[in-house]
Specification:
The protein has about 375 residues and is α/β, with parallel strands linked by helices. It is built from 15 helices and seven strands.
């Protein structure tokens, strides 16, 4: 596991940046174990901590400078999605001249990046096996994502024991993030995708079963193993096969967490049920299928809408059961900046977000008002 990370890194580089979040990896001894493994393998490294949830562009800039000044050519992330996403931003910036933020806002095309490896401590974002990176620019508090196959980690070490010390709130947010990745893919306009529908449904049911087990017993290895693997599969693009997902809820949530710095999973718990209520009639049959297969709602053949809404209600009940709220107020977020968030999400109403249903600024505002 993490004690073997030095040998894994040495296959790619002998001079690396180790990037991580707060002090927990030091208090638990994880940092020392990784450092010992790197030293044993003859890998020189510089360390950069300080990654926050909703990782900041300014810290990525610092990492880019460290890599350039010290001729580091590999980034090892230790942590959850925030540390991994920040590491990917550093990998992009260090391999290219100019401003790394330009990639996130579509001003430049990525043609190269430093290789990245990960030691996962928090199953949630799936960044340990994805093409994605999301960072927040403090100038304007814009949270934006970028995808490229150049960002696939070269390796990822998944040890469920590393999640044992997480707070229960973070575990709940992680389970919600994983579930949201699955639902973003599930609600699609693509047809003839029955097989992948079943894979998504099975993975959603796994999260629904294992999330509460983890929260009830934070040292349940088997439950963490199931949840960790589900998180990786949920976002490694296997479950994209043959379909185009929506991702509108993620775009909306990015504006909430970008401005208010709330946990991403907690924000998704608020946005997703509201989005579902807004788009329910776009494809009622898909919502009925989801409600019956995933949430075990009894099919009412005379009232499909009631069946679909029962599924949304069970999603909300699940979120409440693991300790999350489903309203903006539960995040400490008011309604005074709804129009601002709607404008930011749609780039000043110049684009529509989502694919299942394309939303303009007015519709994004309606979703946020439902969430209020």
């Amino acid at each position: 596991m993490e004690n073997d990370v030095g040998a894994e890194v040495a296959r790619h580089s002998r001079r690396i940046l180790v990037h991580f979040g707060g002090g927990s990896i030091k208090t638990t001894g994880l940092y020392d174990r990784v450092a010992a493994s790197l030293n044993k393998a003859g890998v020189e490294f510089k360390a950069l901590g300080g990654v926050k949830p909703n990782p900041r562009l300014s810290l990525a800039h610092e990492g880019v400078r460290l890599c350039r000044d010290n001729k580091l050519d590999f980034v090892l992330a230790i942590g959850g999605g925030s540390a991994i996403d920040s590491s990917k931003a550093i990998a992009m910036g260090a391999a290219n001249d100019g401003e790394v933020w330009d990639f996130y806002v579509g001003k430049r095309e990525l043609t190269r990046a430093l290789p990245v490896g990960t030691v996962l401590t928090f199953p949630a974002a799936g960044s340990e096996a994805s093409t994605a990176s999301v960072v927040t620019n403090e100038e304007g508090w814009l949270k934006r994502g970028f995808n490229s196959e150049l960002l696939y980690p070269k390796f990822s070490i998944l040890n469920p024991e590393l999640a044992f010390t997480l707070p229960k709130f973070q575990a709940a947010c992680g389970a919600t993030d994983i579930l949201s990745h699955l639902m973003e893919r599930y609600f699609t306009n693509s047809r003839h995708v029955a097989f992948v529908d079943r894979l998504l449904e099975a993975t959603m049911k796994t999260v629904i079963a294992q999330g509460p087990r983890v929260i009830a017993n934070m040292t349940d290895y088997d439950a963490w193993a199931e949840l960790m693997w589900a998180g990786t599969i949920a976002h490694n693009n296997l479950l994209n096969t043959g379909r185009v997902g929506d991702w509108g809820s993620h775009d909306i949530e990015h504006e909430i967490s970008g401005i208010y710095d709330v946990a991403h999973g907690a924000g998704l718990a608020v946005v997703f049920p509201a989005w579902m209520k807004h788009v329910l009639h776009h494809d009622l049959d898909r919502f009925v299928q989801w409600s019956v297969r995933v949430w075990n709602v009894e099919l009412d053949i005379f009232d499909k809408e009631a069946t679909a809404r029962a599924g949304v209600a069970r999603l909300e009940a699940f979120l409440h059961s693991i300790g999350l709220g489903t309203t903006l107020a539960s995040l400490g977020v008011g309604t005074d900046r709804i129009d601002e968030m709607a404008r930011k999400a749609t780039d000043g109403d110049k684009r529509r977000i989502g694919n299942f249903v394309k939303l303009d600024a007015a519709q994004v505002a309606q979703v946020l008002k439902l969430a209020a």
